Amino acid sequence: MTTAHPSLRLPGALAAVATCAAFLALPAQAAPVVGAPQVNVPAAGPTRPAAPTVAAAPAAADPGPTVFPTAIDPAYKAMSTGKARMHTCLKQYKANKKAGSGNGGLHWIGKDAYWSQCSARLKPTQSAQPSTK
What we know:
Elements: H1 12-25, H2 81-99, H3 114-122
Helix pairs in contact: 2-3
């Protein structure tokens, strides 16, 4: 006569919990399957050679100092002050870009980009503006 597993004698949910606990307590061994071919599993370890390490890319060449115009180009004096600043800065930016350096790695537009810095430099200072009082 065979005896039932101890967990089968417990009522309802307790039997399920006991069965799970008993299963988790078993050693982690796979049961052999009858008639299945035997497969040789290598011991744990790398299965392929390690990837070669890549040397860090050399740093980009120094873009050089940023070159800004010192005054509004006389060709744009007839325009409004904002447009004259923009065209003067753009002309210098394009000249710097064509020369290959002088923009200091700055893009034309964006936060702290060439346009914003150039425009701020070309704006008249507060002391040069006439007083409105």
